[in-house]
Design brief:
The chain is mainly alpha-helical and 156 residues long. It is 68% helix and 0% strand. The chain is flat.
Length: 156
């Protein structure tokens, strides 16, 4: 099985657990004299089975990620950490540029002469340029990660 297939199975298992959890919550209590819509104990047992399978799958994915080499990016685990940081860096730069440009507040002009003029404390154009470079690096890294996901075999 390819790593990408295992990742898809993991996502499906997480969705299944969430569905089962919701159904358990909906059926965990019922009114006296009524019967619950579903057997909460059976649903809970099914959730346990899916969770056991999910744990095994996550362990295999993590082992695979730790051993697959991705060239200068190190292992796949290293690349995933880098991708997470690049996403946070991009979000931070974008938020800073938006805040400095008065985003969401109609700019930083003034309507009356008596109002104080709001000035930018950060170079907006430079921040946007940096954010664009980070976004490019993020896209390139993500492509390398996706390629590795489809090429790497899942470790038992």
């Amino acid at each position: 099985m390819k790593l990408a297939e295992a990742l898809a199975e993991r996502a499906a298992a997480v969705r299944r657990v969430e569905q089962l959890r919701s159904r358990v919550e909906a059926s965990a209590r019922y009114q006296e004299g009524e019967t619950p819509a579903e057997d909460a104990a059976r649903l809970l047992a099914e959730a346990d089975e899916v969770l056991d399978t999910l744990e095994t799958l996550i362990r295999r994915i993590n082992r695979t990620n730790a051993t697959v080499e991705l060239g200068p990016d190190g292992t796949l685990t290293d690349a995933l950490a880098r991708r997470d940081v690049l996403r946070l860096r991009h979000a931070t730069l974008t938020a800073a540029a938006d805040a400095a440009s008065g985003g969401g507040r109609g700019g930083y002009g003034r309507q009356l002469r008596s109002e104080l003029l709001m000035l930018s404390a950060l170079p907006v154009a430079e921040l946007r340029e940096r954010a664009d470079l980070v976004a490019r690096d993020l896209r390139q890294l993500d492509v390398r990660i996706q390629r590795a996901n489809w090429e790497a075999e899942l470790i038992p």
